[in-house]
Amino acid sequence: MHKSIRVKLFLTFLLTTLLVVAGMYFFTRWSLDRGFNELVESRQRERVENLIDSLSEHYATHGSWEGLAGNKRLWIKLLLQSDSRRHRQPQAWMTQDLSEPATLWPPDLDAGVYRNRRWVPLEMRAMLLAADRSIIFGRQELLAELTLHPLKADDKIVGFLGLLPGRPDNQLGDLRFMQRQMQAFAWIALLMVTLSAVLALLLAYTLGKPVKRMAAAAKRLAVGDYAIRLPVESRDELGQLARDFNEMAAALEQSEQARRRWVADISHELRTPLAVLRGELEALQDGIRPMNAEAVDSLLTDVLRLNRLTDDLYQLSLSDQGALSYRKILLDPREALKADLAALMPQFQQKRLQVEWRDQCKADVALYADPDRLAQLFRNLLTNSLNYTDSGGRLRVTVFSTGASLLIELADSAPGVAESERAQLFERFYRVEGSRSRHHGGAGLGLAICRNIVAAHNGNISALPSELGGLTIRIELPLQG
């Protein structure tokens, strides 16, 4: 079953918290158990030392074990006095042993009791041996399991305190304290898990809300609603994602608008010459216009204008897709520019346009370029200046280098282009004055093609005001080092 992002976030936060709480619980319990065991063992060592001191002092006072041997009541008293932290009365198993032989200790219980009990009292594990290791209080069958502690008087070993293996006993209050602590830890862990679940739910809702909003916006974007925008509510990654989404939506909206303008402009540009052709053909068909050479020339002019438009559209679509073929060789672009200028010179002279050539390069220049595409670039720009510069004006072509780049400037005289419109000159179908453009046979595609050609040569093209009163087109191309 599909799980939403909120459920996944909730489960992730909750599982992480469970692992942390469980780890802290078991670590705390282990640490407490370890500390408690160390405390019990410390008390055990203290009791053993106290018992050793008591027995050694008893021997030093009486000079022998005769007063203690066989006196189980005194032996039990010494055992109980070794625990300075509590005062206990003899247990039933102690009084039971008074009826057994004088040397037997502890009471006649199964030896497995000492190993099976979790807490074994020190009194049930202690035995007293003389210096020759004979039994004063003990059992012969348990001697092999004893750990012996020497008893000294006047720096001489006068006996041994033997201890059977087993975990030391503990006070009932300590056990109750440990149980309360374990219960408290369990309740604390349960409370932490509950609070973590609430916090995880809140975080999942808080973090999942913008993600869910983005998913809904993405669906609207997928069906063509490019006006959708997301609110930017933070400066973190989610906020940056919202900003990126808005920029993407704006770019798609702009692309969609450009596509619609593109279709509308193509339809308009194709419809105009077709309408003219249709009108002229209908006039010829109806006999309104005679079929003569002038009519044929007019039809041919409209067909050529339509052919130029379709050819420009084809070239622009190829350049947009990067499908224009480029056969780059090492060449000097100045030669190609001079050749194109020379080819168009008769038309410049016919329009009484003065052409000035300025070559300011101090050394030979060379770059990798396609000579045919460069010729297409230069011819488009020169033709624009030829068509849109007033008769009797000027065109100045300047070439100079900056070390790593070659700059070519084509500056013409009036009319100029307003600053607000210069940045849009390289957009397809954009014309400063549509009627004039159609009068000169242009559809606003030439500069768009020029921009793509320059970009294919890793260069830049821009439009600037001309000091001659018109427009300056600047081309920057990287030179071959």
Automatic annotation (TrEMBL):
It is found in: Membrane. The keyword ATP-binding applies. Its EC number is 2.7.13.3. Residues 265-481 form the Histidine kinase domain. One of its GO terms (molecular function) is ATP binding. It is an enzyme of class 2 (transferase). Residues 205-257 form the HAMP domain. Keywords: ATP-binding, Kinase, Membrane, Nucleotide-binding, Phosphoprotein, Transferase, Transmembrane, Transmembrane helix, Two-component regulatory system. InterPro entries: HAMP_dom, HATPase_C_sf, HATPase_dom, His_kinase_dom, HisK_dim/P_dom, HisK_dim/P_sf, Sig_transdc_His_kin-like_C, TCS_sensor_his_kinase. The chain crosses the membrane at residues 7-27, 184-205. It catalyses: ATP + protein L-histidine = ADP + protein N-phospho-L-histidine. It comes from the Bacteria. The keyword Hydrolase does not apply. PANTHER family: SENSOR HISTIDINE KINASE TRCS, SENSOR HISTIDINE KINASE YKOH. This is histidine kinase.
